[in-house]
Design brief:
By secondary structure, the chain is an all-alpha fold. The protein is 50% helix and 2% strand. The chain contains 18 helices and three strands. A three-stranded antiparallel sheet has the order 1-3-2. The radius of gyration is 38 Å and the shape is elongated. It starts with 40 loop residues before the first helix and ends in an 8-residue tail after the last helix.
C-alpha cells in the first residue's frame, strides 16, 4: 500500500507539501577499492637488504635512498621484468647513489662514453638481457654482499595494501646528518676538504679526495689500508671520511719520521709541534692496523713527552693504547707504565681504578722496582706517613717524578696541617724543608707565603720559624680546598 509522508502542522501558517526525495541506489566507487599487489619474494628481499643496518653507507639519507628504490622497482614493474631481473645481484640503491655522486665529481669529460656503458649494463640487469657476473668490481661493491635470506614470517602481514606498508624499517637506525645542510657527497664540502689538504701538503693535490680508491674499504675498522705517502712530516687532521692511501705513510717511512721527531725534540723542545706530529704518526699506524713493537715504541715515547710537559690528556690516550698493546705480548716497558698508572690513580684519588690495578698485578710484578716504589708511596699516604712519602718522592725512578709533582703540593699542605697540630709553639723552617723535600729554605718559605700563611713566619734567634698556633687553621682550610677538587683531564 503506497502512502505519502506529510509533515505535521506546527503553527497557523498555510501548510505546504514536500515530496520525499528518492535516494538513488548506492553505486560502487571503483576508486575506493584498492588492488593488493603481491610483490615477488626476491623483490621483498631486495628491499630488506637495502634497509639493513649492515648495508648503510655513511652520508646517504633515508629519503634519498627510498626515492631511488621506488624508481628502480617502478621501472621494473612498468617493463614487466619483476620476475626476470636478477635481484640477488642487483646493486643496492645506496650503492647506485654513491657511484653516481663519484662519477659526477671525478669523471672527466673524456670518460662520458664509459659512464654511458655503465648505465647500459644497469639497464641490462633491469631487463634481464645479457649475462650478469656474480662477482662485481670492488669499486662497485663498497660493502660486503649479504647472504640470501628467507622472508621472516612476521614480515608477511595480512591486510597490507601498499608497497610502503610491506617495508619493515629497522628501529632507531643511526643516521649521519650533514653539517653543511646539503646532501652527503656534496661538491662544496668535498672542495673545502680538497683545498685544506692542498694547503697542508704545500701544493700536493690528492687524486680523488671525495671517494676512496677502488680497493679501499669505507669502514676503517674492517680492513687496513697500505700507505703510499713519502713525506716524513705531516700535520694531524681528524678523519671525516675513509683515509686516502696517498696521504698515509707506510711503516718504513714512519720509522724515519720517529727518528726525526726524537732528534727535533732534543734540539728544539717545541711541544706543540712534536705533539701534533706524534698524533699524525699514531693515526697512520691506526688506519693501517699496525700493532708491532714499533707501535709500542711510538706510544711510549709520546707518553713520556706528554708527562714531561704535564699533558695528562695525551698521556692517558697513550696509556690506554699501551694497555691493549701489552696484552698482545709485544716488547716494551710494561713495568714502567704500570707504575705510572698507580701514581696517576694516587693523583686522581680513583679508588676503583686503583683496586683494579692492584688486582691485576702478579707477585713477580710487585717485586719490580718501579711498581714496588709506587705501591710503597700509596701505602705511605694511606697511613698518613708523610715522612716516608717524601723520602720516596726524592727516589722516584724513571719519569714518575713528573706525576708525583702533580700531587706533591696537596700532600705538603696536608703534612703542614698535621705538623701544626703536633708541634707547639713553632717549627723551624729548616725542619720543614727537610721533611717535605723542598730543595731550599727559600722554596719552602715561598710555598708557605703562596698559601696565605706568610704572616706566620718569624725570625727568632737568627732562624726563621713557623708559628704553628697561628698557621694551623689556615693550613687546614687550604688542605680541604686542595682535596676538594682534582683535575682528571683525559681520565682513563
Amino acid at each position: 500500500m503506497a502512502y505519502t509522508v506529510v509533515q505535521p502542522r506546527r503553527g497557523f501558517e498555510k501548510p505546504f507539501q514536500t515530496a520525499t526525495p528518492v535516494n538513488p541506489p548506492p553505486v560502487d566507487n571503483p576508486k575506493s577499492q584498492k588492488t593488493v599487489r603481491d610483490w615477488p619474494p626476491k623483490v621483498r628481499l631486495y628491499v630488506q637488504r637495502s634497509f639493513a643496518e649492515t648495508n648503510t653507507i655513511s652520508g646517504i639519507g633515508r629519503q634519498e635512498m627510498e626515492t631511488k628504490l621506488k624508481q628502480i622497482i617502478s621501472d621494473a614493474a612498468e617493463s614487466n621484468t619483476l620476475l626476470t631481473v636478477d635481484w640477488d645481484h642487483m646493486p643496492l640503491p645506496q650503492e647506485m647513489i654513491m657511484e653516481d655522486g663519484n662519477r659526477t665529481y671525478t669523471m672527466p669529460v673524456a670518460k662520458a662514453s664509459e659512464q654511458q656503458s655503465n648505465l647500459q649494463v644497469q639497464r641490462d640487469v633491469m631487463t634481464g638481457n645479457g649475462t650478469t657476473s656474480k662477482k662485481r668490481k670492488s669499486s662497485e661493491q663498497p660493502t660486503a654482499p649479504q647472504p640470501e635470506e628467507k622472508t621472516p614470517p612476521w614480515r608477511n602481514k595480512k591486510g597490507q595494501t601498499t608497497f610502503e606498508d610491506r617495508i619493515t624499517y629497522p628501529e632507531k637506525r643511526p643516521r649521519v646528518e650533514s653539517t653543511s645542510g646539503t646532501p652527503s657527497k656534496s661538491v662544496a664540502a668535498l672542495e673545502n676538504r680538497k683545498k685544506r689538504f692542498e694547503n697542508s701538503e704545500n701544493g700536493y693535490v690528492p687524486p680523488s679526495p671525495c671517494a676512496p680508491p677502488a680497493d679501499d674499504p669505507m669502514d676503517v675498522d674492517n680492513a687496513p689500508i697500505v700507505g703510499r705517502c713519502q713525506k716524513l712530516e705531516k700535520k694531524y687532521y681528524r678523519l671525516t671520511a675513509a683515509p686516502n692511501p696517498d696521504l698515509v705513510r707506510p711503516p718504513y717511512i714512519l720509522q724515519k719520521t720517529l727518528d726525526l721527531l726524537k732528534q727535533k725534540w732534543k734540539d728544539e723542545r717545541n711541544y706543540s709541534y712534536i705533539c701534533d706530529q706524534f698524533k699524525s704518526l699514531r693515526q697512520d699506524l691506526t688506519v693501517q692496523h699496525i700493532q708491532t713493537d714499533f707501535t709500542v715504541s711510538v706510544y711510549e715515547i709520546h707518553a713520556r713527552i706528554a708527562l714531561e710537559k704535564g699533558d695528562l690528556g695525551e698521556y692517558n690516550q697513550c696509556q690506554t693504547q699501551l694497555r691493549e698493546l701489552y696484552a698482545l705480548e709485544l716488547r716494551g716497558r710494561p713495568t714502567e707504565f704500570k707504575a705510572y698508572r698507580i701514581l696517576y690513580f694516587i693523583h686522581t684519588r680513583n679508588r676503583t681504578g686503583m683496586n683494579d690495578v692492584l688486582a691485576d698485578l702478579t707477585s713477580a710484578e710487585k717485586s719490580e722496582g718501579p711498581i714496588r716504589h709506587a705501591l710503597e708511596a700509596r701505602s705511605a699516604l694511606a697511613l698518613g706517613n708523610y715522612h716516608r712519602f717524601f723520602q720516596l718522592y726524592l727516589e722516584t725512578p724513571n719519569m714518575g717524578a713528573y706525576l708525583m709533582d702533580m700531587f706533591a703540593p696537596r700532600e705538603r699542605l696536608a703534612a703542614l696541617a698535621n705538623m701544626c697540630k703536633s708541634y707547639k709553639p713553632s717549627i723551624k723552617l729548616r725542619f720543614i724543608t727537610e721533611e717535605l723535600a723542598f730543595e731550599t729554605d727559600e722554596e719552602a718559605a715561598r710555598f708557605i707565603c703562596d698559601n696565605n700563611c706568610g704572616d706566620s713566619l718569624e725570625n727568632k734567634d737568627g732562624e726563621v720559624v713557623l708559628l704553628t698556633g697561628k698557621a694551623a687553621a689556615l693550613f687546614e682550610e687550604r688542605r680541604k680546598e686542595a682535596f676538594q677538587k682534582v683535575d682528571i683531564k683525559g681520565q682513563i
